[in-house]
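[INFO] parsing input record for Transcriptional regulator
[DEBUG] input buffer:
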Amino acid sequence: MANHTTLLEPRHPNLRAGATVNDVHDPVTVPVAPTVAEPLLREALGTTLRAFREDARRTLRDLAVAASVSPGYLSELERGRKEVSSELLASICHALGVNVSRVILEAAEMMAFDVAAAELAAGMDQAQAAQSGQTH
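[DEBUG] output buffer:
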């Protein structure tokens, strides 16, 4: 009895009968580097935590005690100088009476807004530069 091994090429949804994967010419999407520096997550989380604390009319010291963290460390977190662990973020959020997911979503929205504003400003600068180049 003979053993036969058949090598099968992976199927591609755009293959016609008898064609190989190498015959398919799919458009390639090349990621484009961002034109502006994106804000850091730790900075956005810090700003968001501070906003939630201020909205709750809590002092830094009061929140630090409730979240079992030193006031100095909480201050560093709010200023975006330190990364927050998921456990500490949960503790701070619990002390503030908000869900972790809400804080993260607010921070993400802030980051997206900052990037959009920076890209808009960069686009306006480019348009002004192009316009001033046409007038000379």
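[INFO] Residues 11 and 55 are 56 Å apart (CA to CA).
[INFO] shutting down worker
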